[in-house]
């Protein structure tokens, strides 16, 4: 089995990575009850340098998730409420005339933060939505020909409401493809909802939430995860899975090359979060739905047959055999 070898950032081990990853998840779970799997995926996105689209009903904790994650890693956070009159400059910032010097200086917009919550992104106009593209992909903002880098870490957590679609602007495929994951929190279970009431009995639980790590440590975890071993066989498995979607008759758009890269980055972080130095096929399979759900587009005929993206993914997993000899030792 051919494995990539590279020198990793000093000071971290698989066990220590897992310990710090779990500590952040445990801390966020003090506010967001009963949604540990979603919290883990959002943290995977942070460490994998990705972004998350949360599609859910109002009042399910999307804003609290962004705030609690930012507080857990001691990172600044901003919130942008999207409306049809929101302008690109309202997000990125713009030059402002300094009356003392009579010169224009750049005033940074809310996008210059570590955790950016873009609430109801589909209510912004396409022009404003497109202003987010460079920031999501390039981690920088260009205003008047001057490029301003965004801080590290940088997570854009965008939300959209699946109801009340009048007057909204659906995200184009090119922009959807730039999100690492599309997730849904959903309503908590009965016991979890009772825990929410108990935790917020006197005041909001997030008020008392303390940081359990630093931004610098998250950056170290990001750099460490980039060097997690990826066997040649697992790389072939990722490629074969993505190619299989392009040949499925139920899909008019399959997984792009960006989807392959997203699977690779996220799988490395998932392996590190499990306390391992090697990516297993099970890491890849566990991430297919959150990575692919917003990228695959069914044909009209498949929609009439009540086919779903999830069913297509199940069929692809069944057709593409995982590599042998790559995984936990019995």
Side-by-side strand order of the widest sheet? 2-5-8-1-9
Calculate the mean pLDDT score and round it. 89
Provide the low-confidence segments as ranges: 1-6
Overall morphology: globular
Helical amount among residues, as a percent range?
A: 40-55%
CATH class group of the largest domain: Alpha Beta
**Count of folded domains:** 2
Order of helices and strands: HHEHEHEEEHEEEHEHHHEHHHEHH
| Share of β-strand residues | 5-15%
CATH topology of the largest domain: Rossmann fold
Structural class: alpha/beta
Number of strands: 11
CATH architecture of the largest domain: 3-Layer(aba) Sandwich
In a few lines, what is going on in this structure?
42% of the residues lie in helices and 15% in strands. The chain has 330 residues and is an alpha/beta fold.
């Amino acid at each position: 089995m051919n494995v990539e070898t590279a020198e990793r950032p000093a000071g971290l081990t698989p066990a220590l990575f897992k310990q710090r990853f779990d500590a952040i998840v445990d801390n966020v779970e003090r506010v967001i009850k009963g949604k540990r799997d979603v919290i883990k995926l959002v943290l995977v996105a942070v460490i994998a340098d990705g972004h998350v689209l949360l599609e859910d009903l109002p009042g399910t904790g999307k804003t609290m998730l962004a705030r609690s994650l930012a507080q857990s890693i001691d990172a600044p956070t901003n919130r942008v409420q999207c409306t049809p009159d929101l302008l690109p400059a309202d997000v990125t910032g713009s030059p402002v005339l300094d009356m003392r010097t009579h010169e224009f200086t750049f005033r940074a917009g809310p996008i210059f933060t570590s955790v950016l919550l873009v609430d109801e992104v589909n209510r912004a106009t396409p022009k404003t939505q497109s202003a987010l593209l460079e920031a999501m992909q390039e981690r920088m903002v260009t205003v008047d020909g001057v490029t301003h880098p965004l801080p590290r870490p940088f997570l854009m957590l965008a939300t959209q409401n699946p109801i009340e679609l009048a007057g909204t602007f659906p995200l184009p495929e090119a922009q959807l493809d730039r999100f690492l994951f599309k997730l849904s929190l959903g309503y908590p279970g009965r016991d979890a909802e009772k825990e929410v009431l108990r935790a917020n009995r006197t005041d909001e639980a997030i008020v008392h939430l303390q940081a359990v790590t630093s931004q610098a440590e998250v950056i170290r975890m990001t750099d460490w995860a980039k060097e997690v071993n990826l066997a040649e066989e697992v790389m072939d498995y990722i490629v074969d899975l993505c190619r299989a979607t392009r040949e499925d008759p139920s899909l008019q758009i399959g997984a792009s090359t960006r989807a392959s890269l997203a699977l690779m980055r996220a799988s490395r972080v998932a392996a590190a979060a499990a306390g391992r130095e090697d990516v297993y096929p099970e890491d890849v399979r566990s991430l297919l739905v959150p990575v692919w759900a917003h990228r695959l587009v069914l044909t009209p005929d498949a929609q009439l047959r009540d086919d779903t993206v999830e069913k297509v993914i199940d069929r692809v997993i069944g057709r593409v055999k995982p590599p042998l000899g790559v995984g936990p030792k019995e």
